Amino acid sequence: MAALIYLFKTLLSLCMIAVLLRLLLQWSRADFRNPLARSIVHLTNPIIVPLRRLLPAIGRLDTASCVALAVFALLQVSVRPLLGGLGPPPALIWVRLALFEILGTTLWTYLVAILTYALLSLIAPGTYSPAQGLLVSLCEPVLRQFRRIIPPLGGIDLSALWAYIVIQMLLILLP
Question: Which are the contacts of 94, defined by CB distance < 8 A and separation ≥ 6?
Answer without folding.
Answer: 74, 77, 78, 88
